[in-house]
Predict the structure.
Amino acid sequence: MSQQTNQLTDWGIQEVSGVGRVEGPIVVVERAGNVGYDEVVEVIDSQGRMRRGRVLEVGEKMAVVEVFSGTSGLTIDGTHIRFLGQSLHIPVAEEMLGRIFDGTGNPIDGGPQPLAGTFSDINGQPINPTARVYPRDYIQTGISAIDGMNTLVMGQKLPLFSGAGLPHDQLAAQIVRQATLGSPAGESSKQAQQFAIVFAAMGVKHDVAEYFRNAFAESGALTRVAMFLNLADDPPVERLVTPRAALTLAEYLAFDRQMHVLVVLTDMTNYCEALRQISNVRGEVPSRKGYPGYLYSDLASLYERTGRVKTSEGSITQIPILTMPSDDITHPVPDLTGYITEGQIVLGRNLNHQNIYPPISVLPSLSRLMKDGIGAGHTRGDHSHLSAQLYAAYAHMQDVRSLASVIGEEELGAVDQQFLKFGRAFEREFVGQSATENRTIEQTLDLGWKLLSMLPKEELTRVSPDEIKRYYKESHDTN
Amino acid sequence: MSQQFGNITWVNGPVIRARGSRDVSMLEQVEVGEERLVGEIIGLNGDSITIQVYEETTGMRPGSPVFGTGLPLSVELGPGLLRSIYDGIQRPLPIIERESGSFISRGVHMNPLDRIEHWSYNPILKEGDQVKGGEILGTVQETENFEHRIMVPPDVSGTLTWVAPAKKYTIDEVIARVKTARGERELTMIQRWPVRRLRPYKARLGQSIPLITGQRVLDMLFPLAKGGTAAIPGAFGAGKTVTQHSIAKWADADIVVYIGCGERGNEMTEVLQEFPHLIDPRNGRPLMERTVLIANTSNMPVAAREASIYTGITIAEYFRDMGYHVALMADSTSRWAEALREVSGRLEEMPAEEGYPAYLAARLAEFYERAGYVETLNGKQGSISVIGAVSPPGGDFSEPVTQHTKRYIRCFWALDKSLASARHFPSINWLESYSEYTEDVAGWWREKVGQDWLKMRNQAVELLSEESRLSQIVKLVGPDALPDEQRLVLETSRIIREGFLQQNAMDNIDAYSDIHKQIAMMNLMLHFHERAERIIKRGANIGTIHALPIVNVLIRMKEQIPNNELEKLDDIRKTLDEQMDQLEAEYR
Ligand SMILES: Nc1ncnc2c1ncn2[C@@H]1O[C@H](COP(=O)(O)OP(=O)(O)O)[C@@H](O)[C@H]1O
Ligand SMILES: [Mg+2]
């Protein structure tokens, strides 16, 4: 296999003493000669301490360097720059599972450097669309709002759009804990699929990282997890490397070692802020809200490192987490993410206020790969119609609900009152479940029908008459 | 072939500068560095040369050589285009896969068209014939259903001094010689054409034939004409790509050029895996046989994304020039505009709105201008219909790309996030969308289906806008406050929305509606309204109408009645009339 073109093309190491300018995380080196774009550098301060960085722009006698761990303490004359003659590579190995690394891939768990035969460029290379295998195998998460309404497929990138204070961490941990390769409703699950887990934290608090570590430990997954941690008090610029390092390992595991890998990236909003900071310091023309015009391409260079390829049995499934500033889904970070990922799971504050866990707002949520991962042979033949009907009924219920808030519930027609009841039950019983409840796909689908049976048959135009005959529960049809 | 003309002086992502010869020209294709990455000259200033590079520039360094090719960035045109998938600068992705595995590595050079395949060529013109640019020399049956017409390149004219006999040839073999004013020219089956220059035609013609898409809301409400332009703006998840895919599958075009411009890898894979198995309803052949794919996905180099649009439209023009009808989809033009912005930003050009360069509008205009219905140089008629997806940030249509696009297109299919979240697909908002071709194509419909399509269309649109007005009232006071006649408007509109406008692209039967099915369905729904209205005037209440079993039949018929069993719609009409008759009898 191919992508780890272990290309340590040596462009030669060179050293320069003294820099021209230091600004924010950027250092401008003025007497650099033969420097390559995107080359890694070591920045050595007057005390001899080393930090790393990379080249963002080169001219004939000038190089602009971003320093991952920041520039504090650097001096104009006392700083040495060593250009390493290659782009940033990290070691990758199966034994990195079970280990903890900092945001640039150095072990911080007290263990030794992993023994790796392969060093890979953290930027990776684009997957050729002709080499991809279109993902069709669903992952059962045991969470009805996902499995029933927004089915996750192996090889999909499906982010959680959340907000400050919402339980996205619990939900992500529950997904990771419960995820198995799905099987058709009623059939016992194929041999439980053990995912390798690559976890990257960007600018999150210690307790968040600790929460995940404990969650992995409790489910006995710790030996299958590699953690890359750039925490809130770690240097922001390093965040730009963290997800790339994590995905480089994920690609190795999935495409060289044939493993199924779940990648959790949190919090993408912090990542984007770091990118914005660098861009602003460099005086680039901003697009929306100060973010650089290339934010879309930059995010795509991470999110697209997901999927399946013909030459491997393995897969990468990505679950990025992001918090929407002011819960605003049109903010550039969720917006551009949604334009790249294969859907989104949106958490809603309203449901959370009603103590519904997981507070998944189903209407704005979407799984674009669901259509090919469900149905007969995957989940069950009625799944697609059932979810469409639940969507339609729930969407109609929202209209009824807002009408009720104007004219009062008593003024509603009989059918609309049934819709209101359906809506409440849907939120509490279908969306709502406990953080340890792991529903089978059959339980989820049957629950969906049980709720639809609260509505008159004539209102159900998205499911077929045959499906109604088979699954609709008459006993509830009275009011 | 290529010659060093200078050395790199500066690298910033996809943009580099070099110093060197003053003989290179603007828009010349160049090769950069020892790896000879493909690039294009986008600025000249004294001996400083600005180049956009179509591949990753990691490791590029000042001092490295830059080579000229003497030619502008061009595409290869000839047999073998169909069924291909290329990146933004026409490199064949399957061959890149063969050479470099699952991941695209840089610096790979390869021919866009296969040099080894032998094509059975049949000459049409003879020795001694006078030829002009665009004339058809002969033909190659490229696929079972597609005749590839080998044309004299647009810039060649003279007398044929030799014509190859009917036989199999590779595209590099000479098939004719022409004595031109500037000496003898050897012609092969291959042409090169600069992507940024439009291919000439004889005359522009009017647009009065619809491009039938099989999508009811488009064909019936907001039709696109062959040779016309349409934009599909919409927030993420609103349904741009599914709509584009549906059109690529079902439109009655001879050729489809699909440009995946800065979008998802899996979406291109989906087309690649699906199209060979989908059958063109018009000729029974796999859809892939009429398709050319350009895939420059979001993670592929951004400058090549900028070029992909031009690569695609030049290929489309080539097929148009043979006298074919081409449908071109670009998903998404916003990503193309962003590529412009990114390169412009690295050049530190003065930005206009939201960081976009001031020439954004001009570039959009140039692109959409390449659509059209024309008389070709060889006297045939051909067309390019262009359908561009637009991805406005935050779904807000007031942003520059949507606004400028609106100036150059005549069909606006506005996708609506709230319809999409209620799973009303395609989420085309019937109040905000428009087509300026409606009147122009009405004649065609009358001729084809013998019915007044325009009148039906306008009735439907009126009902729907009345519904929207009434819904405002309902939101405040509830439906019971409306008289039954108005509630019938709501009921019929619901039937039209759910039973006609909503169309499930994933359903085998519903994915594509034949025009006769569309007309018959609309007819039934309007007939329902007419009859129900009469009965309500006689005193029946809306509840009894809503309870008629026919209502659900009307909503479900789209998925129940295949295109080849339309006689069943007559049965539905009978049932409808029976139920109405019965009700009417009660209110005599
Ligand atoms: N005509 C349709 N029929 C059924 N589902 C659709 C249709 N159009 C869109 N969808 C649904 O909406 C999702 C998003 O559509 P897509 O075209 O990918 O959106 P966009 O390109 O605007 O982001 C699809 O994955 C599919 O689930
Ligand atoms: Mg899309």
Residues 453-477 of chain B form the longest helix (25 residues). The radius of gyration of chain B is 27 Å.
